[in-house]
Amino acid sequence: MRSLPASLRQMTDITSLAFLFIAFLTGIAGALQTPTLSLFLTTEVQTRPVLVGLFYTGSAIIGIIISQMIASYSDKSGDRKMLIIRCCLFGALGCILYAFNRNYFLLLTVGVVLSTFGSTATPQMFALAREHADKTGREAVMFSSILRAQISLAWVIGPPLAFALALGFGFKTMYLSAAIAFVLCSVVVWYTLPSMPKVKQQGSALIQAPRQNRQAVLLLFIVCSLMWTCNGMYIINMPLYLINELHLPEKLAGVMMGTAAGLEIPVMLIAGYYAQRLGKRKLMHYAIVAGLLFYIGLFFFTSPWELLLLQLLNAIFIGILAGIGMLYFQDLMPGQAGAATTLFTNTVRVGWIVAGSLAGSVAELWSFHAIFYIAAAMCLVSTICLLRIKIA
Fold first, then answer.
1. Rounded distance, CA 334 to CA 347, Å?
2. Average pLDDT over residues 41-50
3. How far is CA 45 from the centre of its chain?
């Protein structure tokens, strides 16, 4: 009789390890594509900065529509495991299209749709992980923080590898590598993750946010969207800013992103440990302050070693936002893991909508450097909104 709980614990440990490996794989797939996208569009597709921004905006709008449809379906009925597999396979097809096609409008339509399915695998994986943690009695905050740290670990490796592959072997090799990561991820999901099919629910009441928390959810959505907008403008403009204005090596952008991702890992783990003690709202305040200092620092520091040192502030900004922000949504929307996680993910996409519009326009009208002033102002606005949230 005592061997059964032990075997269940062993199975749970294997499943948890599988979640960590899948988080790493999806992170690698994303980290191989996102950091070099603006450079890909500029050099391979040969588009103007404003069209680069339009591409990010269009991608985000399509992403919001598709991911919300998937989230609504996954919370009411369906098996998240099968959804994750399908999303990974569609993501692989998107990478193959990017590898062999250089038509801007085909990439903006078919390519973006396929890529959106690929990126939606991550929030569905986090939603399944939250349900798995609740079912097995694991501490959800720390488990989710460790999962998010795996994605940051992927971003330590991904951006430098992406620039090395793109500059050394070409973008085709880079995108095919991302496709392999998606396919491998789908195989691991099929053989290791648990199936938790939903019983179809009648009506829509179960997928609505609790009435008393709707204002807090709205304010948190605005805060996270503004913070992701700052990060999106930074990611879009940084490679072009380093090359065109500072005349620094192209590979430095990948090193900077990898450095920030590496520093995010201890930030996420520390934030997860102190979340219950300090409260998620206070941690989000710390993140915004770090972000404000980071973007102010970019006004003055331009040498490679100074830019690398600034990544500590960037890591605090993104590490807390990425780890605690998602859990904050889940706390405000109990019983809706898929909708809450996807709502948080859509703050990333809203951020890309605004970032794409601003980054391309500002770079074409003024300079790549001017975008950091806008980012600092957005940090101040997000602070005001966060102060109005009363639920810690």
1. 19
2. 86
3. 25
How far is it between the farthest Cα atoms of the chain?
72
DSSP element (H, E) containing 158:
helix 140-168
How many of the other CB atoms lie within 10 Å of CB of 196?
A: 14
Task: Indicate the SS3 state at residue 34.
Answer: coil
Distance CA 384, CA 280 (A): 16
For residues 26, 70, 333, 15, the Cα torsion angle rounded to the nearest 10 degrees is -40
Please name the amino acid found at residue 328: Y
Encoding tokens for residue 85?
């597999």
315's CB contacts (< 8 A; 6+ apart) are: 260, 261, 262, 263, 264, 267
Average pLDDT, the chain: 82
Which amino acid makes up residue 97? L
* CA neighbor of 16 nearest in space, from 193, 134, 190, 152: 193
Contact 342, 291 (CB under 8 A): no
What sign has the CA pseudo-torsion 19, 95, 338, 152?
positive
114-117 contact pairs (CB < 8 A, 24+): 114/90, 115/33, 115/59, 115/91, 116/59, 116/62, 116/63, 116/66, 116/67, 117/66, 117/86, 117/87, 117/90, 117/91
Q: Where are the alpha helices (DSSP H) in 245-303?
A: 251-278, 280-300
Tokens of 352: 């890309």
Burial of 265 (0-12, 13-18, 19+ CB in 10 A): buried
The tens digit of pLDDT for each residue in 222-238 reads 999 999 999 988 888 88
Residue pair 161/169 in contact by the 8 Å Cβ criterion: no
Q: Which two tokens stand for residue 153?
A: 């670990």
Distance from C-alpha of 52 to C-alpha of 39, rounded to nearest angstrom = 9
Phi/psi for 390 (5° steps) reads -95, -15
φ/ψ of residue 102, rounded to 5 = -130, 20
User: Which DSSP letter does residue 210 get?
Assistant: P
Q: In degrees to the nearest 10, what's the CA dihedral of 222, 225, 231, 237?
A: -110
**CA–CA distance, 152 with 118 (Å, rounded to integer):** 18
pLDDT at 3: 42
DSSP 3-state of 197: coil
**Would you give the end-to-end CA distance of the chain in angstroms?**
43
Q: Are 21 and 79 in contact, with CB atoms under 8 Å apart?
A: no
